[in-house]
Amino acid sequence: MTQPGNEIFVVTSLGSGHLFPCIELCNLLSSRNYQTTLVLPSNLLPPSSFRHRTASIAAFDIEPHSPTQAQHQAGLDLLAHLEAHRPLCAVVDFQVGWAKPIFLKFDVPVVSLFTFGACAASMEWGAWKAAAGDLNSGEVRPIPGLPEGVCLTHRDLKPPSAASGGGGGPKPSHRPPWVPAIEGSIGLMFNTCEELESPFLEYLCRQIGLPVWAVGPLLPEQYWESPSGSLIRDGAVREPKRESNYTEVEVIQWLDSKPRGSVLYVSFGSETGPTIEEYPELASALQDSTHPFIWVIQPGSGLPKLFGSRCPRQPSSGMSSLEDGYFPHDLASKVGDRKLIIRGWAPQLLILSHPSTGGFLSHCGWNSTVEAIGRGVPILAWPMRGDQIYNAKLVVNHLKIGYMAFGEDSSDVAKKDILEGVERLMSDREIRKRAEAIRVEFECGFSASSRAALDAFRDFLTKKKLNLE
């Protein structure tokens, strides 16, 4: 077996929220003279669709319908690769449980990668240590060592709906699944930066006792290089995964026709969303609001999702068919040109970077959250599962650049909650000022603290390599 060279493996999990940050991490490591290899399931995306990548690709067959057998085969393929070729280090998404033991078998140091933020990981760790599974309605419980405003509440115990895909993070009294996953790692890497999450990064470093590197937000290079106030064209960054009923040019033309800061952008990502009962409440709230809006609706919206698939059920009001899910067919005639309803893929980076966009009603997935923060767009948070709940707390309670879309004791989100949230968000000048102040911190591009962290990681690996020689 060869001695460790200058190659770093980056192993990604399923889903664009994992893949795209890993691609950007490869680019950043390559810029520091490392050879990088992106390890991914062969059915995730064809390598030809990875634009502006610098990494080599190592693809393994991992089929969703037979994960155990496929992961075993992928493990054998990786073993064969490592028999003759040993990388300097492997950065492994902690969700890829099968990969780490193989690297450790060949004495390849492993760094555990979190593609979400440090606030979410801190809250999961702190809630577990505090055994906070017995919260009563209206009770607020702070976590020792974390900022006072970021507390656990009874609503955090609510199980995710079937429409949001189920699953998600651990209950507050349960051990986070990433705790055993990081055992044996030489350090932790987070898709965030000190400018946004410094106290949470410090907390994790103290609690876990491993080096922590914040190397994000891992967004496309074009995002950071685009001058303030200029538009980011999604099509130049990533190949669309789905069809759309509007082109980028048509979206720009519509936004150009609206006053500065007047448009509410509504999108819940591709893997989660409100329930079929909540969608009509949202449509009614947008109808009664006076603000122009862009609403992105995915096929199958409102339908239960299990492991990425839909469960059969009878159509409800507003649903055109079982396959299509919810769609507000009658909304267009009621609001006229005040709306742009996009079905399928939407140019999110373009919309968030347009000066007419003044607010974002979001599920608070981590990529969407940092894309909005970096462009100074306040957020109306509608989290549904997992780290989204804690990302929303970061936005609302710590950074104070948004509001929640529902009350603490709400079970489902109602029209009244949404309408009040929209009006508060779009009219709050102080929130806009705070969001703009954070945006200014990134005016020179990619986070300065994350550049320093990547340099510190390089120095760490250099010392480790010298110790092995």
TrEMBL record:
It comes from the Eukaryota. Its EC number is 2.4.1.-. Residues 157-176 are annotated as: Disordered. Keywords: Flavonoid biosynthesis, Glycosyltransferase, Transferase. InterPro entries: UDP_glucos_trans, UDP_glycos_trans_CS. The keyword Transferase applies. GO terms for biological process: flavonoid biosynthetic process; glycoside biosynthetic process. It is an enzyme of class 2 (transferase). One of its GO terms (molecular function) is UDP-glucosyltransferase activity. CDD domains: GT1_Gtf-like. Belongs to the UDP-glycosyltransferase family. PANTHER family: GLYCOSYLTRANSFERASE, SCOPOLETIN GLUCOSYLTRANSFERASE-LIKE. This is Glycosyltransferase. It comes from Actinidia rufa.
